[in-house]
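Hi support team,

I've been running sequence recovery on a batch of backbones for a student project. Most finish fine, but this one hangs at about 90% for roughly twenty minutes before it completes. I'm not sure whether the input is malformed or the queue is just slow. I've pasted the structure tokens below so you can try to reproduce it. Let me know if you need the job ID as well.

Thanks,
M.K.
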């Protein structure tokens, strides 16, 4: 199957645990499109893990590094892009991603995040010292909504169901 987006890319945004990488890989394989994980690209570029960078730089500087990198990194045409959950803090990165393709917010509840992500404090998760997962979730939700061309509630969906729903919503007549 070819991508319903034709020449545009697809950018997946959302919290850790939303399934951005899993769904992104499935979509890319199904559409025979390139797949890019911006967290993985950043780790390759820097030569260190996100957690190592976060420990060394602190969360504010790490967000700036992520923003600057995503704003200029090489992205293949018409790819499926999975982003880090904190990319929405970087206006220039999000401007670039929104220009690149359709931004889809894979929306999950706080309960689902907590069920799926048990190691959030050791996986390069950008948050202020002492900030709870709930506080981060509440802080990010309006940003995801702001940047999304399409919001897809995913709490009770398998990755395959998310793929099917995205394809239904992104058919050429329904591309945002």
């Amino acid at each position: 199957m070819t991508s319903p987006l034709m020449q545009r890319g697809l950018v997946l945004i959302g919290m850790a645990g939303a399934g951005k990488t899993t769904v992104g890989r499935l979509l890319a394989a199904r559409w025979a499109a390139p797949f890019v994980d911006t967290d993985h690209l950043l780790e390759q570029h820097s030569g260190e893990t996100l957690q190592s960078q976060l420990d060394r730089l602190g969360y504010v500087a790490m967000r700036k590094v992520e923003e600057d990198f995503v704003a200029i990194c090489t992205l293949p045409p018409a790819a499926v892009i999975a982003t880090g959950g904190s990319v929405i803090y970087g206006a220039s990165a999000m401007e670039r991603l929104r220009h690149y393709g359709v931004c889809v917010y894979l929306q999950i509840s706080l309960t689902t995040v907590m069920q799926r992500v048990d190691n959030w404090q050791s996986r390069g998760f950008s948050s202020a010292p002492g900030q709870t997962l709930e506080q981060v979730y509440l802080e990010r939700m309006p940003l995801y909504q702001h940047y999304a061309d399409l919001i897809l509630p995913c709490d009770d969906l398998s990755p395959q169901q998310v793929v099917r729903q995205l394809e239904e919503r992104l058919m050429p007549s329904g591309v945002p």
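--
Follow-up from support: It reproduced on our side and the slowdown came from queue contention, not your input. The chain has a mean pLDDT of 89. No action needed from you.
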